[in-house]
Structures are given as structure tokens and as C-alpha cells.
Design brief:
globular, alpha+beta, 414 residues, 3-stranded mixed sheet, 5-stranded mixed sheet, 16 strands
Length: 414
């Protein structure tokens, strides 16, 4: 029998699966942090630090007792986490490493073909030489082995040894041993990922089964396409075939989208109680990272929350609708708007440029006070002293009224 999940219940269930229904002030020690990341499946890594790097903000938005040094210890000392690729660079529980070996095998041929088009013939000439350099000389950063006459640039201008290091990392021969000013330190995988995480070997069928079940557990409910996209480990066809094979042991559900449509999906039967009676999330407003896992699947987020969100980093400035790096705002179980701001660490300021609320969200004094409280928390986390609001920070509510914050007194005005 197919079970109907109404839209609000679906939103609440997905928030719970994404760790956003937990008490944000409950003490998060190192072991609890590892548990949170295991529950999420992975945490995306990104270099942009407009306010805070993505992985730190993702974790802080779920628990504001999160400490960066605990994450560093889990990665670089305990080796309970490792860095690799899902749909993008991510921090992943080391307990999942044995499954990533299947990704390494798939990546090898695909990357060679793709990168040859990018780099041209002979781009792999220093691959073995670079690997030998790490094997014999120990951990290394790309800058330590580049040629003196190479001009630095983005990924499109990697020097040959950097290309080799990234290739060996993407295909599993090297791992990230740590970071220095966010630059990767590469070492042999067997010197980074503890031996007990390499075994036992899993067959292809076991790998696909784990990838699908692990994804569905973290999504709560999903189509085969959403299952495949979660870790980006398996193909859509593999996920579709898995659903067909396991159909008798999966619970069919219909999820009501924000526009009232019913989307056929699947759930794991042992997860049904949590899906059908999910907890209420905290009522506070939280600033999410643009790379938050709640929004990673933009289409799914739009179907569930009615919130259209796109990152405009690579959009030319004149064509941006909002801004370079605009942060989504979550209040309870609703995505209520987005905010443009930047942490100016030299000035000690979290500078708020502009806030856009969704059309049906009222800019009440209470809501603005909750937002201010969250921004004060975020400012302390990023290490700045105060929050400054620009004179042109204007909030338009659903009555057509406007409110702004007096930049001198901080008072809200009509």
C-alpha cells in the first residue's frame, strides 16, 4: 500500500534527516560531531570564505557549540574522516572508504579521457614521477614541487605536478593528509586512511546496495534519481535497477510537493515512524551555507519548500538577481529568504548588505529580532566583533511595507 506524505510532514522529515531538527545548543563534543557527519553522509568543502568556509558553516548551523579544532582532529589526527569527492569535494566518514574504492576505479578511465581533452597530449608524463616523489619524500603540497617558471592560476592552469597530484587523489592512490591555509597536503592513501577502513572488500552489488540504502536513509524518501544523485557514486540506471530488485522490501510513498502534486517515491520501512511523525525543528532563524545539504538538490528543495535558490558566483555581476554569495535563511520548517553579507575580519565586522524575504514572509519586528540574534551568533563564530547593517538594507514584507534598521541606533523603523 502506498502511503501519502503531506507537504509539511515531508519538509519536517527531510529537516530531521538533515540534522536540522536537533537542539542547536546541545553540547557537541568530538564524538558527537563524528556522529553528526555520519548521519549527514558527507559535508561539502569549498574554499570561498565570504563569511565562513562551507564545511564550518554547515556544521555550525546545526549546532552552535561546534568547534573547528574538533573537525581538524577527526580529519588529521584520529583519521575518522577523509576528504574525497561526492558531487564535489567533501569530508566523508572513513568508515565509508571501502565503498569509495569502487569510485576510484570508475574515475580512472573517465578522468584520463576528460583531462586529456583539457590538458592535451602528454599531460600525464609526470604522473609516476610525482607519485614516486610522495612515496619517497612524504607529504607534499603542490606548491612545493611546481616548476619555477610556472604561472599560478585556477584549476584551469594547474602545473603538471599539481595535475598529477589531483589525479592520484581522485583515483585513490593519494589522500589528503591535512591542509595548510586551505592548501591540500597529499600523502599515500595507506599512510592517511587507517588500514581497518580498507577492508573488507565489497563486491559491486554490495557497493550499489550500500550506496542506495545509505542515500535513502539520509534522504528519508526519494526517487531512484535522487538516490543516485545523493553521493554521486552510482549511475541513475544502477539506482533504478536497485529499486526494481528491492521493490518488495521498499515502502512506496507519494510525497506532496509545495504546489500540491504527488511525487511517487520510496522509503525504507524501518524509517517510517520517523517519516510520518517527525519532530519539530527549532523556531529560531538559521543562516545556511549556499552548499548546505538541505539545498544540494536544488530541484528537490524547490519542490518541498517552494524556494528557488541558485548560487550566482559564476554569473556575471550585471546578470545576478541577488548577489555573488547569498545565504539562504531557514526559520523553523520554512526557507524564508536570503541575505547578502560579508565578514570583514580586519574591521571586525559582519557587514550586512541586503535581505530579501520570500513574498509571503512578513518582515515583523519579532522576525527581524530573531534574525539579528542569529547574525550576532554567526559574527561571534567567525571571530568578528559586531554586525553592521548597510543604509540600503531594506526589507519588503508581504503587505508592501518597508522596514529598515537605523545604522546608528540599530532600531527598526517603518
Amino acid at each position: 500500500m502506498t502511503i501519502l506524505i503531506d507537504n509539511r510532514t515531508a519538509r519536517l522529515a527531510f529537516l530531521e534527516r538533515q540534522g536540522l531538527s536537533r537542539a542547536p545548543n546541545l553540547k557537541l563534543d568530538k564524538q558527537a560531531l563524528l556522529g553528526l557527519i555520519e548521519d549527514l553522509g558527507f559535508v561539502q568543502v569549498d574554499s570561498i570564505q565570504t563569511v565562513e568556509r562551507a564545511h564550518h558553516q554547515i556544521l555550525f548551523s546545526r549546532n552552535q557549540t561546534y568547534r573547528r579544532e574538533d573537525l581538524a582532529a577527526l580529519l588529521e589526527t584520529d583519521r575518522a574522516l577523509f576528504e574525497h569527492w561526492t558531487h564535489d569535494a567533501a569530508i566523508i566518514p572513513s568508515g565509508f572508504f571501502r565503498y569509495w574504492k569502487h569510485r576510484f576505479l570508475r574515475e580512472e578511465a573517465a578522468i584520463l579521457a576528460r583531462w586529456q581533452k583539457w590538458r592535451g597530449e602528454g599531460f600525464d608524463a609526470v604522473f609516476e614521477e610525482t607519485y614516486a616523489r610522495v612515496k619517497e619524500g612524504g607529504p607534499v603540497m603542490a606548491r612545493e614541487i611546481r616548476h619555477a617558471d610556472h604561472t599560478s592560476g585556477g584549476w584551469w592552469n594547474w602545473h603538471p605536478s599539481k595535475t598529477a597530484l589531483e589525479y592520484h587523489w581522485r583515483t585513490g592512490r593519494l589522500a589528503i593528509a591535512g591542509r595548510v591555509n586551505f592548501q591540500k597536503v597529499y600523502d599515500l592513501t595507506e599512510r592517511v586512511v587507517p588500514a581497518h577502513h580498507h577492508e573488507p572488500e565489497v563486491s559491486h552489488d554490495e557497493f550499489v546496495d550500500w550506496a542506495c540504502r545509505a542515500a535513502l536513509t539520509r534522504l528519508g524518501f526519494a526517487t531512484s534519481g535522487e538516490i543516485a544523485a545523493f553521493f554521486d557514486l552510482i549511475t541513475p540506471q544502477e539506482a533504478k535497477d536497485w529499486v526494481a530488485r528491492e521493490a518488495q522490501d521498499l515502502q512506496p510513498v507519494e510525497v506532496v510537493t509545495v504546489d500540491g502534486r504527488r511525487r511517487p517515491s520510496y522509503a525504507l520501512p524501518d524509517r517510517l515512524p520517523g517519516l510520518l511523525e517527525p519532530p519539530q525543528p527549532p523556531a529560531r532563524i538559521r543562516v545556511l551555507s549556499p552548499f548546505d545539504p538541505l539545498l544540494r538538490d536544488r530541484d528537490r528543495a524547490e519542490r518541498l519548500f517552494g524556494f528557488n535558490y541558485r548560487i550566482e558566483v559564476f554569473v556575471p555581476e550585471p546578470k545576478r538577481q541577488f548577489g555573488y554569495y547569498v545565504f539562504p535563511l531557514l526559520e523553523g520548517d520554512r526557507l524564508i529568504g536570503r541575505i547578502d553579507m560579508k565578514a570583514d575580519r580586519k574591521a571586525g565586522v559582519l557587514a550586512v548588505k541586503r535581505l530579501w524575504l520570500e513574498p509571503d514572509v512578513r518582515a515583523s519586528a519579532g522576525r527581524l529580532e530573531k534574525l539579528d540574534a542569529e547574525l550576532q551568533r554567526l559574527a561571534r563564530f567567525t571571530g568578528v566583533e559586531r554586525v553592521d547593517y548597510a543604509k540600503n538594507w531594506i526589507l519588503t514584507d508581504n503587505r508592501g511595507g518597508q522596514r529598515s534598521r537605523d545604522p546608528k541606533t540599530g532600531d527598526m523603523t517603518e
